[in-house]
Amino acid sequence: MRLKSIELAGFKSFAKKTQLEFASAVTSIVGPNGSGKSNVAESFRFVLGEQSMKSMRGRRGEDMIWNGSATVPRAGRASVKLIFDNSDRALKLDFDEVAIERVVNRDGSNDYLLNGSSVRLRDIAELLSQANIGASGHHIISQGEADRVLSSSARERREMIEDGLGLTAFLYKKVEAKRKLQKTAENMREVEALRRELAPHLRFLGGQVKKIEESQKLRDDLADKYLEYLKRESVYLRTQEALVGEDFAAPKHEHDELTQRIVYLRGELSKKQDDAGTTELVSLESEARAVASRRDNIVRDIGRIEGEIAAHERITVVTKSSIPTEQVRTFTQHIEQGLNEALMLEGVLIKEKLSTLVLAVKDFFGQLVQATVQAAHSPEELQAKKQGFEGELSTLQVEEARIVAATAALRKKIESEKDANRDGERELFTAMARRSELQTTLAALQAAKDTLLREREQFKAELAEAGALLGRAAVGYEEVELKSVHGEPVSDADIVDEPRQMQEDRRRKVERMKIKLEEIGAGNAAEVLREHQETAERDQFLMRELEDLEASAASLHQLIDELTETLEVRFTEGIEKINTQFDAFFKLMFGGGTAELAIVKEVRLPGRSLASADDADEVSEDAVDKEEGKTEEGIEIAISLPHKRIKGLHMLSGGERALTSIALIFAMSQVNPPPFLILDETDAALDEANSRRYGDMISSLASRSQLILITHNRETMSRAGILYGITMGGDGVSKLLSVKFEEAVAVAK
Known about the structure:
Layout: E1 2-9, E2 18-21, E3 26-30, H1 37-47, E4 77-85, E5 97-105, E6 110-114, E7 117-119, H2 121-129, E8 140-141, H3 148-151, H4 154-164, H5 168-271, H6 276-321, H7 323-342, H8 348-375, H9 379-417, H10 422-470, H11 492-497, H12 500-520, H13 525-590, E9 594-603, H14 621-627, E10 631-640, H15 654-671, E11 676-680, H16 688-701, E12 706-710, H17 714-718, E13 722-728, E14 734-739, H18 741-748
Parallel strand pairs: 3-12, 3-13, 8-11, 11-12
Antiparallel strand pairs: 1-2, 1-4, 4-5, 5-6, 6-7, 9-10, 13-14
Helix pairs in contact: 5-10, 5-12, 5-13, 6-9, 6-10, 6-12, 7-8, 13-15
């Protein structure tokens, strides 16, 4: 990499655009005092990111801008641009030419440009560190600052040497790694705090989900039991209804035929002579029919009351579960809400019609609840009625037995008294006796039909309730495959043959499960499950993020350890190389003696920066506080002059300090040469003999770095390939003069 040129515009005394090209290994800038030649050195500091205005002889950024004169107005901004030949890609940019520019405005704001694009100062510093151009300014030595490396503290001297050794890039990486580590630790604390906040809510939702799962399991069990009950009940009712229908058909047909036959026989007998016995027999027969009819009615009433008692038990359970009532209530509230919203529409007729519907819905619900309550007579009343009917049934049975006995006696009497019409009467009596038997059979069958009818109505109610609880699954009860406890298929015959009490036990178990399901409740299960899933996923995400952060922190710790080891190794090796060159240059400058750098340890003082980086302020104050009081390494300088008992820097004269500083700076430059080195009148304190030695070292250094020399020394000028002259007129503006090299040599001699 080679420095091609520098361009100044509005910077300090360079009011107008001025460009200096560096086509030679050594370039000298000369001019009288006050002409502005040192502003060139300061322009290098400025464009490379110097933040201390004091080091550039100013108090604020505005002081860097041309402030005007009587003839030249002041500038609105100052800019300095450095242009590098990057053909060797020393700067990790895919450009053959790299331009770095800094602009300061009147408001004090700064802009940094890289090939015309706006960038951060940090980006500039990291880029330049790749070419051993660091922030300590070891490659720019201004007048009066040559011995800064001597007067600095051990730690500051170490930072300058680290910069000179090209370790700045590693220091930047280390500072950046520490910053990232601190940020990672903060992120870990935030993530852990978020997980702690989520934990109670997640536990609560977990409890809700468990309750929902229990409810769902109970609902699934209920569905299985309910469908089994419905399937068994359906098979039983269907089979029994078919059997009763078959059993009822033949007796009914025979009964109807006998009735017609009896009517015919009575007609035939009535044509014949009637007697008191026949009339009495007909009367007894009529009385027997009336008693039988009343008995049948009482049997049906008893069956109805038994059904009401069973219904009462069911209504009690349903009322406790409150499931149908709540469904009706919910339906009513939903309809009522919709109708109330419709009332907001315009139109008198619509409002009147909807108002009527609202009242009708409310009245429907009220009547439904009232009817449910009224339908449930008290068990005591029903039992009392049943007992009354049973008592009357007993009386009728006694009366029926009496009539049967009287009829038998009368028949016997008539048999003995009548000879005529015996066959017809015998047939009539036989038919009447058979019809009486059939009536008893039909009454029993009718009672069975009535019982099945009540059970069918109960089944319909159960099916409707199952539909409300199970949804469409309820209609599939016919598809359920029933199996015994041994896993064998259950046939319809098995269902019909089992005791009815077992089916009643199943119904009661289903009712208990419905009540328990209502007691558990679960709120809006879908919403709870969704929220639990989202919360759990959020917690899992945070857990994974925490694991990633922990892995990142471990990686950063490892990186910091590796960088620390690399810095220590390279620094130690670099000190050894610098010592070799330092001692050689020192002997050359003083004609003997010794010079050496030594690594020492010191305690960090408050306010000391963590590393030589322009963005070190990005590291928190807490991190700085933690570093305070720790032992750190610095650099001390040990020298011994020939023929003198001087062993400490404080005993050196001004000239001796200057020579020592120059020897150390040149030694650092030899070990890890920067692409360019600016020396601003560092030779001012040298005598003629030392000036020649200085010139020889300049020639030696020029083989490894570009040199820009600001000087009054003729010996130094003679070593330059290009000579720029700076002059200043009455307008106070610095101007650049071209001087031919041959003329410069003649003047120097």
